[in-house]
Write a structure and sequence with these properties.
By secondary structure, the protein is mainly beta. The protein has 2 domains: 111 residues, Chitinase A, domain 3; 110 residues, Chitinase A, domain 3, CATH 3.10.50. The protein contains 4 helices and 14 strands.
């Protein structure tokens, strides 16, 4: 399960993400309310283009309740917070609100409960709380998130089980056999392009024993097709992934999963 779920959902939160679109320019000192009910007040204007889905954002923030009780503060840790916008690594209210801002902007964001932690009690945050964030956007690395490997000009192959795959780079040596320990870098996508997990973003490949049931069946089959150093795009039907139930909230029921995979090492 990617230890049946070693494709662990490393994200902090948990709900759908709207597509990025053209939005109204904010005016300094004027409150703007998004269609989702998020209140935005731009306090200091930065420069450049608006943030977009897939950008890696680096910012400082202070989080408080509406009565100004503080629950978190990145400046006190002297550590800016980093996340990839639109990849569900943060509460939905952040993914929605940050699309209105640019690097250098200083602002206050007030997020309603349904786009925050809802009815869940969090440390220092009672259920049903509105969340107030004072933010300063320090930097954005544009289009940072991985994309599915391009397959133009490559032959699609389909196994007897229904696994679809494209060998992007052949690699060298022998293919791994059942019982071998393999190290794999991967990025997992839903069919709409949303990333649900990525060892590339974490910076460390995963390791598992091939054919032992530690990963989804499509992985046990697909990784065995690669040589060390080889890469492939796997398109895994739901019956070889997480089945009819999926892995909500990140992986819906009956989801076909798309993976960039690289066989880093075989032991």
């Amino acid at each position: 399960m990617m230890l049946r779920f070693i494709l662990s959902i490393f994200f902090l939160v948990f709900v759908g993400f709207q597509s990025f679109a053209q939005i109204e320019k904010l005016k300094t000192g004027k409150e703007f309310v998004t269609p989702e009910g998020i209140k935005l007040v731009l306090q200091k204007q930065g420069k450049g283009k608006l943030l977009n889905k897939g950008d890696k954002v680096r910012l400082h923030y202070r989080g408080s309740l509406v009565d100004d009780r503080e629950f978190d503060n990145s400046r006190e840790r002297n550590q800016p917070f980093e996340f990839i916008l639109g990849m569900k690594q943060v509460i939905e209210g952040w993914d929605v609100a940050l699309q209105y801002f640019k690097p250098g902007d200083v602002a206050r964001i007030t997020i309603p409960p349904n786009l925050g932690y809802g009815d869940v009690d969090m440390p220092k945050i009672p259920s049903g709380s509105y969340l107030v964030f004072d933010i300063e956007i320090l930097e954005a690395i544009r289009d940072f998130a991985p994309k599915p490997f391009p397959t133009k000009g490559l032959s699609k192959q389909i196994s007897a089980s229904g696994l679809e795959y494209w060998i992007v780079q052949e690699g060298n040596g022998d293919r791994p056999t059942r019982g071998k320990t393999v190290e794999v870098h991967y990025t997992g996508f839903l069919e709409n392009g949303d990333i649900f997990d990525s060892s590339i973003l974490k910076g460390t490949p995963i390791s598992f024993r091939l054919g032992s049931g530690m990963v989804i069946p499509g992985w046990d089959e697909g990784i065995a097709l690669l040589k060390p150093g080889g890469t492939a795009l796997l398109s895994i039907p739901f019956n070889l992934a997480y089945g009819e139930s999926g892995r909500p909230p990140m992986i819906p029921p009956k989801s076909r999963l798309i993976f960039n995979v690289e066989l880093v090492n075989v032991k």
